[in-house]
Amino acid sequence: MIPGRKGYIKTSVFFITYDEVLAKEICKAVELKAKLITFLRSNVIKELYFMEIEGNVKGSIEDILRDKVLWYKIDVIEFN
Predict the structure, then answer these.
(1) Distances (CA, A) of 47 to 24, 70, 71, 80
(2) Average pLDDT rounded to a whole number, residues 61-75
């Protein structure tokens, strides 16, 4: 599917952790399960990370993040 086109689905993830090594491990775990589009660390709040992943992978991402990070938010976006 082409990003931004009708039918395209992506999952946006925000999470907070003070452990940079853990953040990189989470990124690698996500890459094993799905196509990672973007992985960024905030320039303003160093503990805040953002990922964009192709497809609806909310359940598997929750499994990776649960009990590892301080806070997370997952949004599944479908273009209609």
Answers:
(1) 12, 10, 10, 33
(2) 97
